[in-house]
Write a structure and sequence with these properties.
There is one protein chain. Helices cover 32% and strands 29% of the residues. It has helices spanning 19-24, 31-62, 87-98; strands spanning 66-70, 76-79, 82-85, 108-112, 117-118, 124-131, 136-146, 150-155. Strand 2 and strand 3 (82-85) form a beta hairpin. The chain is elongated, with a radius of gyration of 30 Å.
Length: 157
């Protein structure tokens, strides 16, 4: 029967395409054009998915709330007999990381911290800032890890 239509069964482009995709191919289009368009579409969809993945990873990396800061003569103070990270450094870093991208977090300004952040794991301080609408926002800051030379801390958004 296939030979009666002028082609040999199992040869040519048609055996590469599924029965369904052959039925979707417009009759005015050559098999090569159809295959090229399908490859382009698959590539375009794959490219868009890759861009979305990179965008998501980039957002995750930039929106991090954890920071490691060295304790040196310029950044260290004493709070309750312990070395601590100066309040101004905690406030400045928190303000800059609170709203790193327009689609992550609310914009805050004027962040202040009442004291320095003790270089002791688990130590906390609550900083305050103002949103663009004037509302005051409390920003809890916690020490994750502390060594003699640095403090790793994070804040809650």
């Amino acid at each position: 029967m296939a030979e009666a239509r002028g082609r040999v069964r199992g040869r040519g482009w048609s055996h590469f395409l599924s029965r369904r995709s052959r039925s979707l191919r417009p009759s005015h289009q050559s098999p090569q054009e159809y295959v090229m368009q399908r490859k382009f579409l698959v590539g375009a969809v794959g490219g868009a998915a890759a861009v979305a993945a990179v965008f998501g990873v980039g957002t995750h990396l930039l929106s991090g709330t954890q920071s490691t800061t060295g304790l040196n003569d310029d950044s260290a103070v004493s709070v309750g007999g312990h070395r601590a990270l100066a309040a101004g450094i905690v406030a400045g870093r928190t303000e800059s990381k609170y709203h790193p991208l327009p689609w992550v977090g609310a914009k805050v300004s004027g962040v202040t911290c009442p004291t320095g952040l003790k270089a002791v794991a688990g130590a906390t301080v609550t900083c305050t800032g103002k949103k663009s609408d004037g509302e005051t926002v409390d920003i809890p800051v916690t020490v994750v890890k502390a060594t003699a030379h640095s403090v790793t801390w994070k804040f809650e958004r």
